[in-house]
Amino acid sequence: MVRQWANRLIMLLVLAAVILVVxxxxxxxxxxxxxxxxxxxxxxxxAIEKIRGEGYVSYMIxxxxxxxxxxxxxxxxxxxxxYTIAAEYVRKFEKGWKWxxxxxxxxxxxxxxxxxxxxxxxxxxxxxxxxxxxxxFGSSPFPMYFGIALHPDISRIVVKDTTGYEKQAQIIPIEQxxxxxxxxxxxxxxxKFEITGYEGSGNIIRRVTQDEANTNNTGTTRID
Length: 224
Known about the structure:
Blueprint: H1 2-30, H2 44-52, E1 59-66, E2 69-77, E3 83-93, E4 96-106, H3 116-119, E5 124-129, E6 144-149, E7 156-161, E8 166-168, E9 170-175, E10 178-184, E11 192-198, E12 204-211, E13 221-222
Antiparallel strand pairs: 1-2, 2-3, 3-4, 5-6, 6-10, 7-8, 7-11, 9-10, 11-12, 12-13
Organism: Paenibacillus favisporus
Protein name: DUF4309 domain-containing protein
């Protein structure tokens, strides 16, 4: 009899232990305790560098608040001494920040410290970040054009779709010959755009057209 009760007690203890393990595993999965990498980061920079790599953000230019988070615009110094210009969407959660989507570009002639003569040869460069709705990245504030204006006389940049609807870009001066610009677009505007850089008096410094749906597109085409 004693042995039977002892066996039953052992079985009950084993069953209780199994139940506790199942509950712990379920709650851990439910609340994200099992995936430490999926946890939010305390800062925007840490959230970006958790995905992109340590030291990825060299110089923060602007942090634009958007729905459910912000878009961070920054410079990343490369190993050869050059720079890339990046835009990254980071989501805000109750317990921190998580990277959502973004991209960057760079070229040897796109960097701070250009002389007026050098900058006047370059005008501007714009990169398109597509919308992410329906993709593995989920919702985001994109599509968006962002880029760098180098020509010292560029004071306004406008993006126009095929219907003639225009949106003016936000320009953030970094130096006289190195200015960040960005403009958020609507998915309903399509993928064909005309981008124009103006000087203060309204004269066109450069105008380009771009079809972002064309996979063979290798760059902007001058039409001025």
